[in-house]
Amino acid sequence: MLGQMMDDALTITSIMKFAMKVFPDTEIVSVTGDNPRHRSTFGKAFTRVHQLANALSKLGCAPGDRIATLAWNDYRHFELYYGISCSGYVCHTINPRLFPEQVSYIVNHAEDQWIFVDPAFLPMLEQLQAELKTVRGFVVLTSKAAMPETSLNNVRCYEELIEAEADSFTWPELDENSASSLCYTSGTTGNPKGVLYSHRSTVLHCLGTNTKDTLALAPDETIMPVVPMFHVNAWGSVYGAAMAGTKLVFPGPKMGDGETLATLINEEGVTFALGVPTVWLALVNYLQESGSKVESLQRLVVGGAACPRSLMEAMDAYNVDMHVGWGMTEMSPLGTYNTLLPWMHDLPEDEKFAYRLKAGRLIYGVEMRIVDEEVNELAWDGKVSGRLQVRGPWICKSYYKLEDSDAHLPDGWFDTGDVATIDQYGFMQITDRTKDVIKSGGEWISSIDVENAAMGHEDVAEAAVIGVPHPKWTERPLLVVVKRPGSEPQKADLLGYLDGKIAKWWIPEDCVFVEEIPHTATGKVSKKDLRELFADYSY
Amino acid sequence: MLGQMMDDALTITSIMKFAMKVFPDTEIVSVTGDNPRHRSTFGKAFTRVHQLANALSKLGCAPGDRIATLAWNDYRHFELYYGISCSGYVCHTINPRLFPEQVSYIVNHAEDQWIFVDPAFLPMLEQLQAELKTVRGFVVLTSKAAMPETSLNNVRCYEELIEAEADSFTWPELDENSASSLCYTSGTTGNPKGVLYSHRSTVLHCLGTNTKDTLALAPDETIMPVVPMFHVNAWGSVYGAAMAGTKLVFPGPKMGDGETLATLINEEGVTFALGVPTVWLALVNYLQESGSKVESLQRLVVGGAACPRSLMEAMDAYNVDMHVGWGMTEMSPLGTYNTLLPWMHDLPEDEKFAYRLKAGRLIYGVEMRIVDEEVNELAWDGKVSGRLQVRGPWICKSYYKLEDSDAHLPDGWFDTGDVATIDQYGFMQITDRTKDVIKSGGEWISSIDVENAAMGHEDVAEAAVIGVPHPKWTERPLLVVVKRPGSEPQKADLLGYLDGKIAKWWIPEDCVFVEEIPHTATGKVSKKDLRELFADYSY
User: Fold this and answer.
1) Which residues of A touch B178 (CB under 8 A)?
2) For the stretch B343-370, what's the b/e string if a residue is b when 16 or more beta carbons lie within 10 angstroms of its beta carbon?
3) Which letter does DSSP use for residue B519 in this model?
4) Can you say whether the dihedral through the CA atoms of A349, A354, A360, A361 is positive or negative?
5) ipTM score of the complex?
6) Chain B partners of A361 at a C-beta cutoff of 8 Å?
7) In this structure, which CATH number among 3.30.70.100, 3.30.450.40, 3.30.300.30, 3.30.70.20 belongs to the domain A438-533?
8) Which residues pair with B476 in a beta bridge?
9) CA distance A474 to B347
10) CB contact under 8 A, B5 and A396
11) pLDDT tens per residue, range A333-351
């Protein structure tokens, strides 16, 4: 028997309509290439979204078409998010930091029809133009006055394009499972793969991450997404802010600039900001060097990489509470968020940090499990580690145009490729990547834990741990170290230093020194290259 | 084009599974007829829910069966909510305060198969038993030791029923649109009508009302639902608490007892409670008489009836922030919630109270409009009033077994039967019931506003305003007053007192004194009876 409740669809359009009615005066402040401080509101922006929808229609866009953006975080990108998705097209956000050949692959794979591009990224498109087979034209995100010269064909100016249009538009009644946006993951191997979000997954992710214990957006907050809008929809914050009536501050191209971030925080009253650890390192370095403060700032969420304790302590000194979040492009992205349980606040400092530095507590809407190699579920005891798998309505089912090779496992779970522990309070901790895990004597050694311990030594600039074959134990860890300039650490000292910091049998058999550790395009240690480098090493 | 995200269903089962994994130790504290302070946890309660599911299956329940409860707020009722709905049956909560003939009508209309009943309500069922045609048996919510004598046929004891069962159960994979629960509205006229909630509507209501600006449940809160679980699922709080890991305190039969409520708040550290104004009046009266305090209590939500300013001020004195919420059984129930916008906190006292006393700000997930008699949408200016209509995924589409007479209008909106204003910030204010509105010279007069103004006069014990025919103005308001004992107010004084408090043309033409104003079964002024009483009155 079915319930008798209304069938209204969960759509991004409903977020827009709500914000226009209830929060028309809430501000959207942006840094753009042509304006160091542009001021808009939800009312103004969504009025322009109506004009944009008319313009998109005249450009010949058809339902389901992929419309690409190559843009920084600003009000025009905000307008594109809603204008494209609410019209029934797919907003395909492209990471401009990718190698040009990856951008070309992605545009062709997605069959993008139009590309909306920030002037800063025109040179890359000019270089790629001949390869972009499906693109019918380009719209430059700027005003007529600031319109640059370009060798691109069929180019329009964003402000000119929309200014001629009416500000009323009849939005289509969309199925909530309609595709709304597309984001490619750039794995370390193989071609990038597209995650195709739906209106439903976007709205549910937004509701699920807007609870008091997670992002907790509301009209009394001002948020600054320093995580790019081309990276998993700025972690959903661009939708969440409109749903919650939260003032938005967009740093545009100035994402890594500590001084600009501090100025925006202070002048716009930012209370909450989102970004990766390097961004907050840049901010804290600027604060320490300049003696500036960020008094309005109460919370940060840090994700994308593990947060160093030193960074968290530095932010504590500014009364800024750092929350670790964890997720993936395939997860919209959020799966866990670190808010301590009430009793954890009273723990001794080190124990409290141990919790604060974990990837966070599972949020409702995501199911999580850790399993062994026979897919037996493992205990949530904070000790046993296993392959981390997730499922839920905002998790990827299959990659775009790879419907036949399901992203998820036969029993409905998505394998994250991570190895993790989960404790009895639902706090998850990544211990390794599945492919980097070291199997020794039938047990797993966490390369991440060993690396973190080794990095604590003052003579170590960088450390990485890989497994190498061992006649008795199958594999044993090998510690690879880049010395800090001017220091001359000895093997025995380094290995001895680990004693007491990690399990005794996790201590590597050997330590080798190298000039440089290989990294991937996104700055992560390339364990694959490292393993090739030491392919002939044997104990 | 459809998105490629997982199809996982939004079910109450997912809330249960999440809470069992992440919040097993979170407490559920109850007052019951047989135990003044019962302590359980989500872990224990949901383990018993598995036993209950096995028992329900053995009782012969089939998918979609309506299983009724006649019970107070306590842990056993909590278990029934999840055990019945997650098994694929419909949890039909019956209001034991209804007239016996209404209970009988409702049970027969719903075709309830089993009734789970608190010992306190056995006498009513014994009296009705012969009329209950579909009921196959009764389960008394108590232990074997406390099992009362009863003349009911086929009676079981709840604790005996479940204790024999295994604590594992394979939950059915439910369609998210499956019916989960049923609650009848008891209108002032006609038979009660059933609202049939779905798993989807329940989960979405829960997510939508758990934002920071609404119920904001989290593990650092302890909530006490003083609104009955037989009244719109205790406003959803029973699901929300499990989703958010919030400790639950259930007052059982002691809902109107100020002393019990104060004791529970203080001893269990309640931070947030939900109830109707009379409940909070009882609490504040107790506090004032006893000199007790409620220091843990930070917030109250008040709904079901307008909140008097005096009550809000009294709670302010105890540092308890009262939030008005508004909704209906047909709305799951929440549509608006009163959290001030940041700048409103700085308003002069009277203006601030004017906002605080409104029905609240529209929440995302509900669409709202006010319309005139030709269904033209009216402005959100806080002045113009019109028929209040709503829509959204947790609003009733049609009543149970009344599928053909849709509850909603042809264009998809549900007419609330209220007349309201909405201001530019999305704050709604009920000004009248549609059927009580007074039409004078083509304009509407708010009977509620006139009544509230008249009630401010010290000699008025109760006041009601109705429209009576008028040769020139179609209708004019008539003020009906019950004098305060010992006072002798004069017509001219009372009508003069209104001058300056309401629009001049709203001031009634006449005032009549009565011994008593007729009330409905639920304690509201019966305007219908009042209009009949003054049917012969003419200007």
Assistant:
1) 1-3
2) ebeeeeeeeeebbbbbbbbbbbbbbbbb
3) B
4) negative
5) 0.91
6) 22
7) 3.30.300.30
8) B468
9) 72
10) yes
11) 999 999 999 999 999 999 9
